[in-house]
Amino acid sequence: MEKQNALNRRNFLKATAAAAGSLAGLVMLPQCGTAGDTGRPESIHIIGPREGYSPQVGTLVSMLDWMRMVVVNTVQGLGPKELDYLHDSKANTIGAMLLHLAALEAFYQVTTFTNRKELNAAGKKKWQTALDLGDAGRKKIKGHNLNYYLDILQRGREYTLAEFRKRDDQWLMLVDPAFFGGQPTNNYCKWFHVCEHESNHNGQIKWLKSRLPGTRAGND
Amino acid sequence: MEKQNALNRRNFLKATAAAAGSLAGLVMLPQCGTAGDTGRPESIHIIGPREGYSPQVGTLVSMLDWMRMVVVNTVQGLGPKELDYLHDSKANTIGAMLLHLAALEAFYQVTTFTNRKELNAAGKKKWQTALDLGDAGRKKIKGHNLNYYLDILQRGREYTLAEFRKRDDQWLMLVDPAFFGGQPTNNYCKWFHVCEHESNHNGQIKWLKSRLPGTRAGND
Predict the structure, then answer these.
(1) Which of B9, B45, B219 sits opposite A134 (nearest CB)?
(2) Residue A46: DSSP 8-state
């Protein structure tokens, strides 16, 4: 196993070194994948390190960016009526799900950036309804336009990224001894969940979007 | 920027080195996160390197494993009737979506493990209906039990993992000059998409599951 570990380290270094240059016949990622002074790669479809973040944290950021782009593309152009559309008595509206994404991110900020395990009183007041969804969500989350939701999501994300910039890959691998299912869970897993959870709801949002009154059939 | 790159490299090395030992007061991921000779970490909720894979490829594998576990948990216990349940005339069944996940993985195997850009004739015959879903999917994909779908998913994943073991982090960062939206897209992004796409459909599967005839109200 030690041999394998050494090999793994060598491979990573080799990949990092090669990424700085180029390899005949292959299109390689420029190191840090940046274009000009934007700190972003030439394409959002490059998963990998980002300038301003440690390599693994930056890779996570590239996933979060990619996923958020997908969600924003899905909801682009929806008005308050569509955001409040309730498909059946058990459903959540698209608007409520967008706020739910922001609420979940707020919860994971607490559980990974602080020593607390849950939202404090102010946090609960702000986020609990959107975290829980259900009847209270159906009653309380409505009447907003798209920018209302996108602004909240964006502000939450800016805070996440600012905290990520202060941390390193060692922090990302830190293990909470009992989290998902009471089992050891590292910060990377918690934030990977924040990311894939956006896709989970994106699937539901697309499903609802193709069934908005007056919408032609979709296949979601 | 060069200074930043050097810093990124140092941080990664530091994290890798620290992961091999332990830090007072912190629970750290053991190097490669393995337990005994299983080649797996003590908890599936550890995102990070996996034995037998280069570090970044192994990290991707840990995400794919985690996501697949979530999907399998969602469908556990469903019978053929539930897998064939059609919610409305535009919907896909849960069974069809499971086959769709296997079909998408087969497509990305082709586009990242071979020089081809699409499935060959045999591949299309096998996967096209599940890739497209829609009317043909509603007509053709039915009458199977859960193991039928899980076995196909598992066999596809085993092939993916076998190919991953032959490749390294440099391969993962290779850029296809025109893929998503005709833009540069690396292999990591393609496989991240395979992963988050499972979550997208998991969201829809949960939505349908909570509406199966005779099921109590859910909130998805």
Answers:
(1) B219
(2) -
